[in-house]
Design goal:
heterodimer; A: alpha+beta; five-stranded mixed sheet; 19 helices; B: alpha/beta; five-stranded parallel sheet; 23% strand; globular
Chain lengths: 653, 125
């Protein structure tokens, strides 16, 4: 036992230490899901080991924390304030208990962790508050006939047996034991009925008895042989001619294959990482050696090679983070079905481009906005079936989600064929709510008017949703999308439908950007949107807006190649001192021509310092409300550069 | 005449648990622990390398959890005999494992008798 004790003390110590460093990251506000998962695992491991050693106080406390993190990682609840400090206390106590236990086989743990465990448990929402989330739901082992479908007819040679299986209720897991029995029966026949439902096997009300109706061509003895050595079996009664499975008693789905927070990585990829890592270590060695000998050329070469390795590594890691959009399709379908049922709409959701891959963090971030848009589309966009028929539309509405990828952005379009938004109503609301004056509204084009629904407080202030067919929480949607350095735009036709288009970056961590200087400082311009960089004569730049135009670069097939785009001076756009009149013969000014959300623009800057990959950090509250900037980039020299949000810059200019 | 010992792969992220199960199985003289893995990825790799007659599989592990590893192993070898090692409160995960094809399960904390009983039951079928 001494050997186990030593192992326990050292491994528990490692978990406590690792959990401690992760717990400190909880205080940073937003907690990445991998930390919640990891903390869950640490406490889970401590609990398991302590239970095996018979250290009940340690088990009690770590079990409570494990349960808490299970809820947190499943997003049943938010990270409660002060959790980080509480965890530190827990870890200190656990550590103290482990030390007491380590004193020897006869030592006892003098600490009573129950009050602390109770404090932790008090944070967990009561079971009623959490929608029943049974992890065991998903593809059935046997296709389960729906309520309307009769069980498939049995071939003539098959007979039905009613099997009553009794499990010792005092067994460790009577429910899973019963599930194991069902699973064994599935191997020799088809389950046509199961009472209680298999999902009831997880509830405490499961009394240990299950009646399975099996259709099989095997004799009764085969069924008996299949079950009689099942552990914890207390009762087994098999009779022929059991009632055919009544509708609805078919086994419900068993396992959920989606929603796993794990990544499947090919071993060859891991080997590649290892190779790449050893290559980098060798190059680092070469660099150190060159620096030691003060050989600048050799050092430069080694540094170049090291950068090459890092780039390669980064690319592979980014690839691994990609996940197809279809991972979230089931959830979106469920939302539409739910809202449609609740609001008596008939809606079909069609998703195209679900195979397009996005960074998993982008995918996670986009779920809520999409969910919101879908709720709005069903609730406020799609009309009631009778209404639709009167309007000459099919009674069932259609919502389309189209996902496509261009360069380093992913475009997600949500389009419905509902009643569309009411421009006049939005204008009226903007006026009566005192958001804009008549003159300002008159100067706005249709997309701008539609975007007014995303102003905080605009849509929630009145019953605008009912007339506009959109609105609730549109400001939240926009903020979330823009926080990801994405953009959204709305188009809508009264009576025909609404189309909301969002573009989000493929990945959030790194962007390819131009680093530009102007009077106001250093800024980064996302290169994905920039079509060309030109030098123009400063005499064409005047302080008044639209002083210069660049010919829009379009495809050769585009007949409208003569379109001109206005050049905006960055300093002026940012509200700092406008460029003074330039003397004739002054050096040409660099201009970045860009396109975002279908809008073209050009930005005159003081100087282009370079182009490269920048590590991006979100601005965080309250700075994230500055719509002109989408984030901040850390530069190699330790300085910071704000990343310009071109769409909003153009809008405000 | 005695049968050759059954070759076993033990999967658990805790060295503590692995050595406990290893001792329980080895002490019977009827099992030979041929490998250990500390996560699901390693388990999948070691399984195809060692082709053991039995796998004990922890559920909650880093890299790849035990349920995914079970699926992957069974994809490669539908005859694989996998016994899940679960902890209290993991009924749902155990049911998921069973539907993934695990043959049986052990609940932690376990006694040597319980482990042997389950393992014998699985290997005798």
């Amino acid at each position: 036992m001494k050997k186990y004790l030593d192992l326990f003390v050292s491994e528990a110590g490692e978990h406590i230490q690792a959990a401690g460093s992760e717990a400190s990251r909880l205080s940073a506000g937003l907690t990445p899901p991998d930390i919640l998962n990891s903390l869950f695992r640490h406490f889970h491991s401590i609990k398991g080991m302590a239970a095996s050693m018979g250290f009940t106080p340690i088990t009690t406390l770590s079990h409570a924390v494990e349960d808490l993190f299970d809820h947190l990682r499943k997003k049943d609840m938010e990270v409660p304030p002060g959790l980080s400090d509480l965890l530190m206390e827990v870890l200190d106590t656990t550590s103290a208990m482990v030390s007491q236990a380590a004193a020897g086989p006869d030592a006892s743990i003098a600490i009573d962790p129950s009050p602390m465990a109770a404090r932790i448990r008090a944070l967990i929402p009561p079971p009623g508050a959490v929608a029943a989330r049974v992890r065991g739901a998903g593809p059935p082992v046997q296709p389960a006939p729906g309520p309307a479908a009769a069980p498939p007819p049995s071939p003539a040679s098959e007979r039905q047996f009613r099997c009553l299986i009794g499990i010792d209720p005092a067994a460790d897991f009577p429910g899973p034991r019963a599930a194991l029995a069902v699973r064994r029966l599935e191997r020799i026949g088809q389950i046509v009925g199961c009472e209680p439902h298999q999902d009831a096997l997880l509830t405490t009300s499961f009394g240990g008895e299950i009646v399975v109706t099996l259709s099989t061509d095997r004799p009764e003895a085969a069924i008996r042989a299949c079950l009689n050595d099942l552990l914890d079996l207390r009762r087994l009664e098999i009779s022929e001619g059991g009632a055919p499975g009544a509708p609805g008693t078919a086994p419900p789905p068993l396992a959920d294959t989606a929603a796993q927070a794990t990544v499947r990585i090919q071993t060859s990829t891991l080997d590649w990482f290892l190779d790449s890592m050893s290559g980098m270590m060798a190059r680092r060695g070469a660099l150190a050696e060159a620096l030691r000998c003060r050989q600048v050329d050799a050092a430069t070469l080694a540094l170049e090679k090291l950068s090459e390795s890092i780039d390669g590594l980064r690319e592979r890691v980014m690839e691994l983070r990609l996940m197809p959009f279809e991972g979230i399709s089931p959830r979106l379908t469920r939302t539409v079905r739910e809202v449609a049922r609740r609001t008596a709409r008939r809606v079909s959701l069609q998703i195209t481009g679900a195979e397009v891959s996005l960074d998993r963090s982008v995918l996670e971030e986009i779920i809520d906005p999409l969910d919101h848009l879908l709720r709005n589309a069903v609730d406020h966009g799609i009309e009631l079936p009778t209404e639709r028929e009167l309007a000459g539309k099919p009674p069932a509405g259609t919502i389309r989600i189209d996902v496509s990828r261009s360069a380093d952005m992913v475009q997600v379009v949500v389009e419905d064929d509902g009643r569309g938004m009411d421009l006049a109503a939005i204008r009226r609301k903007a006026l009566s709510g005192g958001f804009f004056t008549q003159a300002e509204l008159a100067a706005m084009d249709e997309p701008q008017i539609l975007m007014l629904t995303t102003i905080p407080g605009f849509s929630t202030a009145a019953k605008i949703t009912e007339v506009s067919g959109r609105g609730v929480g549109m400001d939240v949607v926009r903020t979330r999308i823009e926080a990801m350095r994405g953009h959204m735009s709305i188009s809508s036709t009264r009576g025909t439908g609404t189309r909301i288009s969002m573009s989000v970056p493929l990945t959030v961590a790194v962007i390819d950007a131009f680093l530009v200087e102007c009077g106001a400082g250093l800024f980064a311009v996302p290169a994905g949107a920039v079509g060309s960089v030109e030098l123009i004569d400063p005499v064409h730049l005047r302080s008044s807006l639209g002083g210069a135009f660049l010919p829009a670069r379009r495809g050769p097939s585009d007949p409208d190649a003569s379109e001109l785009v206005p050049v905006v001076d960055l300093d002026e756009a940012l509200g700092s001192a406008p460029r003074g009149a330039s003397p004739p013969g002054a050096s040409p000014v660099p201009v970045l021509a860009y396109q975002v959300n279908g809008t073209r623009g050009a930005l005159a800057v003081g100087k282009i310092r370079g182009r490269g990959d920048l590590v991006v950090k979100p601005l965080g509250p309250p700075l994230e409300r500055l719509r002109r900037y989408s984030g901040v980039a850390l530069l190699d020299d330790g300085n910071l550069a704000l990343i310009l949000d071109l769409a909003n810059l153009a809008r405000s200019a | 005449m005695t049968a050759p010992p059954l070759r076993v792969l033990i999967v658990d992220d805790a060295l503590f648990m692995r050595s406990m199960i290893r001792d329980i199985l080895s002490n019977t003289g009827r099992f030979e622990v041929v490998g250990e893995a500390a996560n699901g990825l390693e388990a999948v790799r070691k399984y195809s390398e060692l082709k053991p007659g039995l796998v004990t599989m922890d559920i909650v592990m880093p890299e790849l959890d035990g349920i995914e590893a079970t699926r992957e192993i069974l994809r490669q070898d539908p005859q694989a005999r996998i016994v899940m090692c679960s902890a209290l409160g993991q009924e749902a995960l155990v049911i998921e494992s069973i539907s993934a094809g695990a043959r049986d399960f052990i609940v932690k904390p376990f006694t040597p008798e319980k482990v042997i009983r389950v393992v014998d039951n699985v290997t005798s079928r």
